[in-house]
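Fold sample X.
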Amino acid sequence: MTDREEQPRVVIRDKRRIDPVTGEVRAPAGPQPAGATPDPNSEPGEQMSEHETPVVEQSADAPDLGQQLAERTEDLQRVTAEYANYRRRVDRDRSLVVDQAAERFAAQLFPIVDDIERARDHGDLDGAFKVVADRVLGLLDGLGVTAFGQAGDPFDPALHEAVIHDTSSEVSVPTATTVLRQGFRRGDRVLRSAMVAVTDPEAPAPAEPAAQPSGESAAPTSD
């Protein structure tokens, strides 16, 4: 026995049933103990080098990787679209809640603004009351609420509420001649219509006769 014992050799066997060289089916071979000397009569390709990686055959029932990738990609696209729709719906609902809260708060300030305007008309808007009035009007400006309705505006049923009617020859169309209460709107949304007195023209302009078709003359009158 030598001073240095011989290390056992590690043998990796090729267990593929089909010989990659000849294409023939190999006979099953039983396990051999580690360190055993390779059988010189074994078929070619039965032994593998230490650096050769065994080939794993894919079962016919295994799903196609390309199909799996397509299915996962479709699922991801569907989830992404659903999330985008959810975000848009949440943003729209949040904006609607903010708008409704702003409009409700502004509506509570309208009676105060009416008192401020009456005090302005009587010349009582001065001193500390004027400072408070400016702050209240500043709140409406911050909410994006603007007042409308002035004497001389053409009457618009969508903006004005007519409470008094009279006629005059000085107007050619229905006109809001007196504003009894201002109106307010936020953007295109009318929060409160203006209360006005409407003056209609005394003699409405007669309707123009319908034009006769060319080439036709008026019917003769009978004697």
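Fold sample Y, listed below.
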Amino acid sequence: MKTLRSLKDYTGTQPTVVTIGSFDGVHLGHQKIIKDLKSLGLQKNEKTVVISFEPHPRLFFDPHADLKLLTTNTEKANLLAQHGIDYFILQKFDHAFANQSPEEFVRQLVENLKMKDLLIGYDHHFGKDRQGNFDFIRSLEHKYGFKTHKITPMLIDGIKISSTKIRDALKSGNVALANKLLGHPFYLSGEVVAGNRIGRQLGFPTANLKFDHPNKILPKQGVYVVKSIIENRPVYGMMNLGIRPTIDGRKMIMEVHFFDFNKDIYGQTIPIYFLKRLRAEQKFDNLTALKAQLKKDAVRAKEWLKKMQP
């Protein structure tokens, strides 16, 4: 997959089939769109193109909006690449782009991308004052020589899949639901940095993560069963996401205790996949009580992992 920064950067000679959206999380609904996109591309010998925006349009219009995203741009690109897309265009969303008419945007898609097919949501709106919708775009088919295809919502157990629902699930600590709607475990990445080594004193050495993505959502504070990929192999453990009220309670900390793992990984940036929430973060009377609870957490985590991955 090639990642481009503008519609104008496409230099391919083949026509394209295009879809547009935030694709935040690349969840099961997005994956259904990608499957349809690839099917059309195969049928018509067209390159597949996913267009998203930087920054997210909602954050552009309201930089102080309470919107946390499921994926960073890098994570989004990595997930799309796994699904076999030919081109991912991360279009800069600025005043000039936001103020163009829907017809002007469609014209650019046809002229710059050689677009022949466009997949668009039944409720999607774009262009100045959000004037562009499915019916309007369809009215331009004959003029610009392309075909419009309507995307309908996808349901799981009667739940309409959306990035908003997944964010809400994560905020409540329901990673099981979030992962079900995503179709893959929610994850974040961070650099392993030195901590205060209290975990080591308790018999539970931890990898402390430095997290530098202010616009990315974090799950509800608590203790989680997690997975990482270190040196190309899966490593499992339990993670505390919170303020460590028993120890200091001043700032958000992400620390992971990996099971059966003792390598030096300081300075490495690793992914953390959230698999299950074990409990809420608690304040204990002393470190002895905290250590006892950590032992219980480790037993529960390992039992769950054994049950899920015999």
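Sample Y note: The first helix runs from residue 28 to 44.
Also: The CA atoms of residues 31 and 51 lie 14 Å apart.
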